[in-house]
């Protein structure tokens, strides 16, 4: 419900019941899930969602791990659209827009920028690498290079492993 319907995959907690009703066309009865309070239901899903903020601004959000899984899935879709299954990081936003027909916004995945997401990517799924030879990236040592240490003359690459 949060992933599919809400911008940035977040939902004000105060809107949860009405959103649930409109999404599933039935009342949200926490007793159906074995609980007496909505917060108890949400707490039981702590590996998937968590609440941030306080008071009327309490917001239900996907956890970082779930956001990272979403991003990993989306990166794979972008890379699979490329003939060599790789792309320079500097071209990722453009390729993302071509594949998903919407702008790439890192905050939609719960982080500030693309490097934050790439730093947390599972190494067995994609390789993030830099090379001084822009025409032929070196993928021989996946995960060796830290994406935060960018040099002006080097290009950053991502590749499906």
TrEMBL record:
It comes from the Eukaryota. InterPro entries: LOTUS-like (IPR041966), OST-HTH/LOTUS_dom (IPR025605). Residues 1-65, 67-143 form the HTH OST-type domain. This is HTH OST-type domain-containing protein.
């Amino acid at each position: 419900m949060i992933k599919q319907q809400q911008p940035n995959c977040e939902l004000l907690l105060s809107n949860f019941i009405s959103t649930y009703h409109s999404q599933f066309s039935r009342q949200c009865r926490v007793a159906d899930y074995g609980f007496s309070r909505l917060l108890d239901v949400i707490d039981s899903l702590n590996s998937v969602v968590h609440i941030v903020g306080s008071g009327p601004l309490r917001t239900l959000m996907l956890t970082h791990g779930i956001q990272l899984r979403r991003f990993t899935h989306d990166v794979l879709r972008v890379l699979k659209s490329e003939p060599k299954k790789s792309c320079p990081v500097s071209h990722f936003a453009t390729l993302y827009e071509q594949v998903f027909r919407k702008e790439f916004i890192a905050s939609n995945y719960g982080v500030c920028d693309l490097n934050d997401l790439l730093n947390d990517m599972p190494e067995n799924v994609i390789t993030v690498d830099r090379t001084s030879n822009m025409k032929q990236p070196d993928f021989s040592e996946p995960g060796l290079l830290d994406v935060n240490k960018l040099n002006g003359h080097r290009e950053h690459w991502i590749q499906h492993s």
